[in-house]
Design a protein that fits this description.
The complex is a heterotetramer of chains A (423), B (204), C (401) and D (110).
Chain A: H1 2-7, H2 13-50, H3 67-77, H4 88-105, H5 123-133, H6 136-144, H7 148-179, H8 184-189, H9 204-220, H10 232-235, H11 245-270, H12 280-284, H13 292-320, H14 328-355, H15 377-392, H16 409-419
Helix pairs in contact in A: 2-3, 2-11, 2-13, 3-11, 4-5, 4-6, 4-11, 6-7, 7-9, 7-14, 9-11, 9-14, 11-13
Chain B: H1 8-28, H2 33-53, H3 57-81, H4 85-88, H5 94-115, H6 119-122, H7 133-136, H8 139-146, H9 170-190, E1 195-196
Chain C: E1 10-12, E2 20-24, E3 36-42, E4 45-52, H1 60-64, H2 69-77, H3 84-99, H4 105-133, H5 138-158, E5 167-168, E6 171-172, H6 180-203, H7 206-212, H8 220-225, H9 231-235, H10 242-245, H11 248-251, H12 287-314, E7 332-340, E8 343-351, E9 359-363, H13 365-371, H14 373-376, H15 384-392, H16 396-400
Antiparallel strand pairs in C: 2-3, 3-4, 5-6, 7-8, 8-9
The chains are: A mainly alpha (423), B mainly alpha (204), C alpha+beta (401), D mainly alpha (110).
Chain lengths: 423, 204, 401, 110
Amino acid sequence: MAEFFHTTCSLPTPLAYLVAAIIHCVLIIHVVAVGALIFIWLERKVSGRIQDRLGPTRVGGAFGWLQTLADGIKLIAKEDITPKDADWMLFKAAPYVGFAASYCAYIALPFSDGWVAQHMNTAVFFILAVLGIEVFSPILAGYASGSKWSLFGAMREAAQVVSYEVPLGMCVVVPCMICGTLNLVTIGNQQAGLFTNWLAFNDPFTFVVAVVYFTCATASVNRAPFDLAEAESELVAGFHTEYSGLRWSFFFMAEYGSMFLVSGLAAILFFGGWNGPIPIFQVLGWSESDGVLLYLARLGGCLNFLLKGTIGVVVMMWVRWTLPRLRIDQVMTTCLKYCVPIAAFGFLGALFWQVNELPTSNDLPGIGINRFEARESWVIEADQQRASRAAAVTPSPSDVPIGPIGSVEFDRVEALVMTGGAR
Amino acid sequence: MLLAAFDWHSLFFMFFALLTCGFAVAMLFSDNVVHMAFYLILSLGASAGLFFLAGAEFVGAMQLMIYVGGTLVLLIFGVMLTAQSRFISMKTRSGEWVMALVLGGSLLFLLLTAAFRVEDWRDGNPNAADIGIAESKTTTQIGMGFTGVRVDRLDAPEDSTLVPGMSGYLLPFVIVSVHLLVVLVGAAYMARTKRRATSTGAAA
Amino acid sequence: MATQLDDARIIEFDVRTDEMLVNMGPQHPSTHGVLRLVLRTDGEIVSEVEPHLGYLHRCAEKIGENLTPRQWIPYTDRMDYLAGMNMNLGWSLCVEKLIEHDLSEKAKHLRVIIAEMGRIASHLVGMGAYGLDLGTFSPFLYAFREREKILDLFEEACGARLTYSYLTPGGATADLPNGWLQKCSAFLDQFEPVIQEYHALLTTNAIFVKRTAAIGVMSGEMAVDYGCTGPVLRGSGVDYDLRRDGEERYTEMYDGYAFEVIVQKEGHYPKDHDYPAIPKEAVLGDCWHRFYVRMLEVVQAVDLVRQAIDRYSTASGDWGVPIKLTHKLPKGEVYLETEAPRGQMGFYLVSDGNAIPWRVRARSSCFCNLSVTSELCRGCLIADVPAIVGSLDVVMGEIDR
Amino acid sequence: MIGISPVSVSHYLVVGAVLFVVGAICMATKRNALGVLMGVELVLNGANLNFIAFGSKYLRAESLGLDGQLIALFVIVLAAAEAAVALAIALNFYNNHATIDVDQASELKG
């Protein structure tokens, strides 16, 4: 985007970067904040339908779509209370920590092929890391509130989130392993084609892993039945008991932000990302063209991705309004006795599948791509560089063939080991 | 034009460096142990930004994940477990302050002079902008490095004393893994649950 | 050494923790009104629970000593405000016992219809609120959807939706309106299949079972020792129901009705083949059984109302004209207990011959049922406290009176 | 990009030095055992910053390359292990002495 401003609008480079950065920030904050508004409204509607009632109907017309905005105005107008016993600085800062972490993780989340604020080679890892930081928000809020209920909530949150990071990480590693990259754009592109290319259907183990991932993701963003940190019927409201007004709404925005984030991550890692079940744009050839058609193809992909993420969020809502809440020891048992072993089993199974090159759904005939055609751009680049370098040097038959970095590099290692290094 | 001379890299470096150092100093001068932990989080998080700027994105993400997300949560846990009001704020005697600041100041002076002593370190890489994207993406290279393939050293002459394929970081990696395992077992042992014993000493 | 070990047997600590006193209530989402529980906790583990009462005390009994029995009826509504009809019934029967007034057949059947409908409405709230205590919101609204229909019926009969003052000494303030019985039958036909929805949402839900089975287990002896009654007692396997075992003046209302007391016998509840099986984890006397007894009592009440409707339409006599009670009451003292939805509701009346009683007392079931909390909650987790208190299904208006 | 003064290894070294010194002072002055632990973390992080700086191709033409980053990784992992052990020690100390003040840990004094 910076290039666009630089070349088309003839802005100086630094300014072009600045404008591009601001646009990215604004777009992402819209995803988080406006997304939260929509999701809160959606949650009300979904819960209303689940409970055989209508939900909001008045504000903003028939569907009450302005309800959250009205609530937002109410929250802004509300008094911002700090309890006497609170640790003033941390109490004020805690909501922003959570919101900032949730917002920051969106930097690496691609919304369509190449539509990402910051291309990151380690996107998956970065998102997990930043989500891990979000846990500080409830901990600090709980500690700083000076309320016993809040402290209980904080301790529960800390124990729960730290435990669930283990199976979550294990599940996320599986698609990365299959795709051979931590780059989300590449992972998404490798699933282009029919829905059989989606990693969840790659082999039986990945499907299990996808289910475990979604469970753990629900737990790590504190949604029912794992919403122990704010368990309303036990801890009043847990870590945000003492908060009011806008500060409280920041917790809410962070929660809905991370809900969409983990759902979106699930969509990219396991359910094809921006690739629809049927590759319309590929058949039409739009995704290989350039200009407006490519833009349209990507826009369609973006809508696809948003839809998949929203489906994930709606599933979380559905679960929330159906199931009772688990107890803290049961939450830990679920994590340590079920999720971790199943995730480890799935990981090993998927590894076994890959190492033995058992047939995957990727091999099915039909419209699709070979997963290794879609590599990270730099790998392809490096391959080309290497090839040109190799062409410059006169090849000698005794030389161990130098393969491209990444996929075929292991051949060279294997050859080295087999020759015993005797060269 | 001023903007043309503008350097984002320097600007962000200044920004993150100031945050890192500022929060570190704030941590030093804070008496409340919870505030200290909070400042430490911010300081370490900002230094992850410095890692990203230096092109070490994998290490930066690792810093965020393990250091900030793991170690510090553990630390805050410890703080909360021992958070009795009298231990929250413990003042340091002023004599100790003077002593520590004098010693620390001289150490800092020493390190700063050392930092600018070597000419090679001082000038930066004038060709930084020309570094190809392939060389700057280090994640896969690190991964290969662990398995013994030094992607960044493919052109280097082979050292005949090394076993091929083992010239990377596989051995240290295994050592660190075993170390981590031992440490975790040890930590779990030390922090194990309450034991009740009868007066004869047998575990009940 | 700075430390002194309290207990010589503890040779090692994990982490030295302090006990914490936590106030649950009087303003708390899951204490069912203004109950205050003081929890002594060590981390998440509760070592002691002490209920504090009196936040809803309104001197109802003392007021009863300044009003005629008829005037006191609205005060009984406000005791167990979720089952006002059953409260009216208890007091009316007590007064009728003092003045030795006998009802016609038709009036008795009317009272069975009303009392059992009240039981359904009350258990629906108990069930929905229990879901809330365990963190699921939807069953509450499902329960209220059906309860609204019962309240509509009550409103049609007496004009009020919560504080009815409908059953009075002598019968009821008015006869059932025309067409009411048909509406009631239609409601029962619609309601009966819906019960399966509640079972699907709660009773058989794996998380629900995990949260309630083997939690707060109370043996039958303990329940008897504490004076527990109602579903709390029957959930512990004690076969006792005042509709069958009570005083003649009360049980004659149910003469000729076919019903079985809901209590587990040989691992089975009566007529439980239509309903979910008892999960393996559940122990007799735990929260799950108390909840299940309530659910089965709803079915039982539906059955009773059906029978009562049939018999009411064919019965002879009037619907029970209220007695004015402006004349002086006979001298004497009476005590009468009825089976209210939450258990035994006893009213005690001493008359010195005036029109206004000399003493009025109420014996509330919830008070005794609540008294077991401190024993049941010892050593449980914080999350179990709402689960246990909710399974006792207390109404504070009845406890504080 | 044209820079006035490109960021160099020396600049990173300065930040690393500040972190190191602050961490050292923290270790020396804090009486809370966990405060001391936090000082250690800062020191390690300061050292890490140096490794990264020396390994960065952006800062130096002849850099350490991957070695710098790999060593930094090991340091991070070891720091996590160290924190786990140190925390366990601190908690045990707290249990046995009912205090977290390191000045009172004088049992081993000769």
